[in-house]
């Protein structure tokens, strides 16, 4: 039994050609391939079309439905039949489409609530010739509406970034939050390579997107550090990102359309976590150093113990210089030019424990204005950097200051004990590390207090 028996269908579609499918067969194939249930009535209310989706929802086959007069006695309850038929057929004389909700009866006696869209079918002269009615289960329609509403809300009002990335890893849709995070307009971000929007970290992000396209969504969010390029320069941000693979629901096999990328900025939280973890580590190092130094018979050796524990994760080199001629009290002058003698230092080559030196008492050849000299003169911490430049220039900067050649960042902390200045401890970092910050200076000062106390005790023991 054909899915339709509308008179004149073949003539309207065109005459059948030999060896080609007829117009009625083509129409039936098109109707049966639709995702929506569809039925149609002629001007007298007789069912003329009934596709497979309608059969799936209600259970009635095309052979059982086509030719019946309305839904009375089979697809609706008798008490509702007149009202349902009147509302459906009213679309024949009304402009546009009409939307209704009905409770229809399935073949096995159950009931299903459907939402219908009906409109008039015009004949060759433009006169109403019948009505077509497309319908779907209400819960399916509501699910679709919810999905659409969710998509619109995500792209308009979401408090986190949402970006749809196509198979070429280029943004196809960007919501307002993501555009602000990227520092660009929503339209200007579309179709651009991610490398034009992000600096450091873009390779990791593209690798994650490629993995999702080929393997599917990861089981948990990923935290990624990226550098965002903007008119005010580069900003380093941490984005907690989730990914979902987008596949076409119309294809027989999943065809990836791209990746849905959702992210939230957690930079401040991550920085707080890192700072807290660093503080805990440094506090533990100071505690361990104090316990290890307490077991040293020689106070000078205790000073090097404090130095070695401080270096872990903090600096690449450390130097301890004492004031030549003995400690200086605050405001004391008239002793001639300030000179410093090396007391201890980390090995210049391979890593190892700090070594005591300076038995000869020869002063270090620090030039005037050296950071270590300024640190002693002002009795305060001094930071210095080689600045941007070629590697050769950085080596010259370090050599001029009597420091290891790989040093590019320096932090000098004064050694004070019993109201006197004993010397200075210098921490040095290579090019692979960041410059010293204020939190680093506070830690260096804590270490300097412990080193100064050990050196002061060593002087007192030696003077007995």
Describe this protein's structure.
By secondary structure, the chain is of the alpha+beta class. It is 36% helix and 27% strand. The protein is built from 14 helices and 17 strands. It has helices at residues 9-13, 23-32, 52-58, 62-65, 78-89, 138-156, 176-182, 194-197, 202-215, 267-293, 299-311, 371-378, 391-400, 438-462, and strands spanning 37-42, 47-50, 98-105, 111-122, 128-137, 161-166, 171-174, 222-230, 233-247, 256-265, 317-323, 328-329, 340-345, 355-356, 382-385, 409-417, 420-429. Strands 11, 12, 13, 14, 15, 16 and 17 form a seven-stranded antiparallel beta sheet that branches. Strands 2-1-5-4-3 form a five-stranded antiparallel beta sheet. A five-stranded antiparallel beta sheet has the order 7-6-10-9-8, sandwiched between helices. The protein is rod-shaped and about 120 Å long. Mean pLDDT is 84; it is low at 1-19.
List the helices and strands and how they pair.
Layout: H1 9-13, H2 23-32, E1 37-42, E2 47-50, H3 52-58, H4 62-65, H5 78-89, E3 98-105, E4 111-122, E5 128-137, H6 138-156, E6 161-166, E7 171-174, H7 176-182, H8 194-197, H9 202-215, E8 222-230, E9 233-247, E10 256-265, H10 267-293, H11 299-311, E11 317-323, E12 328-329, E13 340-345, E14 355-356, H12 371-378, E15 382-385, H13 391-400, E16 409-417, E17 420-429, H14 438-462
Antiparallel strand pairs: 1-2, 1-5, 3-4, 4-5, 6-7, 6-10, 8-9, 9-10, 11-13, 11-17, 12-17, 13-14, 15-16, 16-17
């Amino acid at each position: 039994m054909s899915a339709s028996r509308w008179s004149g269908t073949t003539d309207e579609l065109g005459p059948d050609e030999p060896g080609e499918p007829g117009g009625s067969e083509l129409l039936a194939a098109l109707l049966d391939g639709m995702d929506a249930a569809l039925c149609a009535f002629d001007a007298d209310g007789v069912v003329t079309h009934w596709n497979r989706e309608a059969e799936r929802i209600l259970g009635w086959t095309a052979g059982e439905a086509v030719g019946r007069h309305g839904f009375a006695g089979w697809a609706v309850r008798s008490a509702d039949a007149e009202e349902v038929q009147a509302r459906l057929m009213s679309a024949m004389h009304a402009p546009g489409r009409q939307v209704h909700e009905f409770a229809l009866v399935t073949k096995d006696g159950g009931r299903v609530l459907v939402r219908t869209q009906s409109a008039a079918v015009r004949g060759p002269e433009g006169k109403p010739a019948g009505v077509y009615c497309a319908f779907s289960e209400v819960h399916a329609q509501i699910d679709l509406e919810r999905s659409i509403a969710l998509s619109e809300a995500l792209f308009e009002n979401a408090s986190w970034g949402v970006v749809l990335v196509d198979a070429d890893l280029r943004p196809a849709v960007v919501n307002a939050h993501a555009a602000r995070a990227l520092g660009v307009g929503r339209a200007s971000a579309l179709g651009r390579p991610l490398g034009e929007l992000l600096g450091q970290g873009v390779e990791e992000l593209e690798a994650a997107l490629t993995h999702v396209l080929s393997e599917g969504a990861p089981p948990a969010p990923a935290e990624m550090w990226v550098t965002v390029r903007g008119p005010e320069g580069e900003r380093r941000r941490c984005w907690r990102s989730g990914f979902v693979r987008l596949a076409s629901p119309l294809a027989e096999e999943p065809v990836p359309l791209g990746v849905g990328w959702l992210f939230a900025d957690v930079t401040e939280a991550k920085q707080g976590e890192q700072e807290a973890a660093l503080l805990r580590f440094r506090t533990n190092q100071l505690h361990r150093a104090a316990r290890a130094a307490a077991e040293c018979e020689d106070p000078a050796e205790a000073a090097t113990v404090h130095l070695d524990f401080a270096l872990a994760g903090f600096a690449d080199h450390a130097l301890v210089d004492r004031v030549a001629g003995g400690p200086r009290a605050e405001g004391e002058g008239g002793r001639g030019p300030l000179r410093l003698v090396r007391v201890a230092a980390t090995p210049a080559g391979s890593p190892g424990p700090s070594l005591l030196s300076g038995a000869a008492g020869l002063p270090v050849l620090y030039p005037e204005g050296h950071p270590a000299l300024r640190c002693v003169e002002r009795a305060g911490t001094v930071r210095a950097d080689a600045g941007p430049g070629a590697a050769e220039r950085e080596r010259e900067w370090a050599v001029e200051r009597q420091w290891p050649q790989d040093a590019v960042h320096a932090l000098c902390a004064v050694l004070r004990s019993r109201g006197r200045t004993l010397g200075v401890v210098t921490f040095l970092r290579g090019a692979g590390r960041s410059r010293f910050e204020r939190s680093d200076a506070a830690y260096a000062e804590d270490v300097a207090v412990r080193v100064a106390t050990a050196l002061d005790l060593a002087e007192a023991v030696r003077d007995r």
